[in-house]
């Protein structure tokens, strides 16, 4: 199996749409489709179920997606380490979810830059699962949000806790309420909760829109097609036409800084110390 084939398959498996995958890879759709078909023929299994309306993963496809992500992540990590092998102070790669509090991130980066032994920090934004680059070696440290992101196998320090808000169109009747309950948000017939892909790339069952990125999510909410419950800090990123309402009974979100327990990086130790001090 070639790395190119694996990269093509992972793109299709994550997007579950050949057109979006081709756009993401910067290639035309026909050669992408041919490559996936040739890969399936060589392996002797179907990786994808294709219909005129959607693409889903088979059991074999889900397995290859997990393995493929790990392989491609390991390759990326190896390339990064090789490039930085001769550098006295290699940069730290910080993985975080798109939409993470800009205020928290700015304070952390500014405070760390003031440290005498600070090194450059590269930001790796993820639409979902920011813990994955930490597992596969593409990142040195991550900002994770419990209970949504997995922290098993990492050392962590708590940075902040916050409540959650429901994001609704400003024209919706609930938008004038001082607060709502979680059950009220989940039972809105015209605004079914948005659905994010799981670790295997598949979406949970439900009527809500399948979400690929934060921009798409906010556009769909503004159009009255879906709703979402997010951490309170996401309020600062809202565009006109959207309203944030506190959800009284939603679980508290805890933001932690996480890193591999085997790390011996002094630069990372300094970043963790600065983060916990803030």
Automatic annotation (TrEMBL):
Signal peptide: none
Domain of life: Bacteria
Pfam families documented for this protein: HTH_1, LysR_substrate
Residue span, HTH lysR-type domain: 1-58
Transcription recorded as keyword: yes
Keywords, alphabetical: DNA-binding, Transcription, Transcription regulation
Cross-referenced InterPro entries: LysR_HTH_N (IPR000847), LysR_subst-bd (IPR005119), WH-like_DNA-bd_sf (IPR036388), WH_DNA-bd_sf (IPR036390)
Family label: Belongs to the LysR transcriptional regulatory family.
Stated name of the protein: LysR family transcriptional regulator
Protein's organism: Winogradskya humida
Primary gene name: hcaR_1
């Amino acid at each position: 199996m070639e790395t190119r084939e694996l990269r093509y398959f992972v793109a299709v498996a994550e997007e579950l749409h050949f057109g979006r995958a081709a756009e993401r890879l910067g290639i035309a759709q026909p050669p992408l489709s041919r490559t996936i078909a040739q890969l399936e023929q060589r392996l002797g299994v179907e990786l994808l179920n294709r219909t005129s309306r959607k693409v889903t993963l088979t059991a074999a496809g889900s397995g290859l997606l997990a393995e493929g992500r790990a392989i491609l992540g390991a390759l990326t990590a190896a390339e990064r380490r090789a490039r930085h092998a001769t550098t006295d102070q290699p940069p730290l790669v910080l993985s975080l979810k798109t939409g993470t509090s800009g205020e928290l991130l700015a304070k952390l980066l500014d405070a760390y830059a003031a440290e005498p032994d600070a090194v450059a920090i590269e930001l790796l934004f993820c639409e979902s699962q920011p813990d994955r680059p930490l597992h596969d070696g593409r990142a040195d440290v991550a900002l994770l949000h419990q209970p949504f992101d997995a922290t098993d196998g990492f050392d962590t320090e708590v940075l902040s806790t916050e409540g959650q808000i429901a994001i609704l169109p400003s024209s919706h009747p609930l938008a004038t309420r001082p607060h709502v309950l979680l059950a009220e948000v989940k039972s809105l017939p015209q605004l079914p909760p948005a659905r994010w892909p799981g670790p295997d790339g598949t979406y949970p069952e439900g009527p809500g829109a399948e979400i690929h990125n934060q921009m798409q999510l906010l556009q769909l909410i503004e159009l009255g097609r879906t709703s979402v419950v997010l951490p309170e800090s996401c309020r600062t990123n809202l565009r006109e036409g959207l309203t944030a309402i506190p959800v009284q009974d939603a679980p508290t979100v805890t933001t932690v800084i996480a890193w591999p327990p085997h790390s011996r990086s002094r630069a990372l130790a300094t970043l963790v110390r600065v983060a916990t001090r803030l």
